[in-house]
Design brief:
Layout lengths: L2 E5 L3 H13 L3 E5 L2 H11 L3 E4 L8 H11 L5 E5 L4 H10 L3 E4 L4 H20 L4 E5 L2 E4 L4 E4 L2 E3 L3 H12 L4 E3 H9 L8 H15 L4 E7 L3 E8 L15 E4 L5
Parallel strand pairs: 1-2, 1-3, 3-4, 4-5
Antiparallel strand pairs: 6-7, 6-13, 7-8, 8-9, 10-12, 11-12
Helix pairs in contact: 2-3, 6-7, 6-8
């Protein structure tokens, strides 16, 4: 579950955004001023930050400057009433990744959050120096290699691309339309069975060796990739987070 830090001094806006994030399946953290926000960013290591610019004490620009001294990777979306081109350019130049102006729709804000998280995951996955670890899966995109519980597993190209698409949104729903667009390049396939067949093959390949069930059907909507132990036990504390992580070097078979 991705964690989102909301740095906003207006309690109504902050609580509304936090509620919407939790409803969408995120962990929401809140801070009412820039100083508290920068402390939370450093201690909690959120996956994304929603940042107001007009904050008491430490303002949004100062927040960004301090944040980028130690963390150049975490995506930051500015959420502010300052809507001139000059304000946007200044914020983006200071280190923000995206800009949403008030008033905003919750749907748009959540879409921006998902898009920025997705881009961050995709950048990590496509790095030639990294591999993706989720549960007992080790995915090496650059080498077109999948290892399950230490066993090399061969899958077809589309199954591998499907796995990468699901891993990019690990723990979250990926709709059938989104899968079709990312894996096949268009939203509407000639047969709705196409995705089902590839999911079934991928499940079979993984299930042969894994202690977890990974690909879960959300009926009428799509699929979610998340490691759930087959025996129903809790995930070990030594198991990587479901959202996946990147490490340098190759994976042993």
């Amino acid at each position: 579950m991705a964690s989102i830090l909301v740095v906003e001094d207006d309690p109504i806006i902050r609580q509304t955004v936090e509620y919407a994030l939790r409803r969408a399946g995120f962990e929401a953290l809140g801070a009412a001023d820039g100083t508290t926000g920068i402390e939370a960013a450093r201690s909690q290591s959120p996956d994304l930050i929603l940042l107001d610019l007009m904050l008491p004490g430490l303002d949004g620009y100062e927040f960004l400057a301090m944040l980028r001294e130690t963390d150049a990777q975490v995506p930051v979306i500015m959420v502010t009433a300052l809507d001139t081109d000059q304000d946007k350019v200044r914020g983006l130049d200071a280190g923000a990744d995206d800009y949403v102006t008030k008033p905003f729709s919750t749907e748009e804000l959540l879409a921006r959050v998902r898009a920025n998280l997705r881009r961050t995951r995709e950048r990590a996955m496509l790095s030639n120096s990294g591999v993706i670890e989720i549960g007992d899966l080790v995915i090496e995109p650059a080498e077109f290699r999948l290892t399950v519980a230490g066993h090399p597993v061969k899958v077809r190209l589309k199954e591998f691309q499907l796995l990468l698409a699901l891993a990019a949104e690990s723990g979250s729903l990926l709709t059938r339309h989104t899968i079709a667009r990312r894996v096949w390049g268009y939203e509407h396939l000639s047969s709705s069975r196409t995705i089902d067949v590839h999911v079934r093959r991928l499940r079979a390949a993984i299930d042969e060796y894994s202690a977890y069930e990974y690909i879960h059907t959300i009926h009428g909507l799509g699929y979610r990739l998340e490691p759930v132990p087959k025996d129903g036990a809790a995930l070990s504390s030594a198991t990587p987070e479901p959202s996946g992580r990147r490490r340098a070097g190759g994976a042993g078979a």
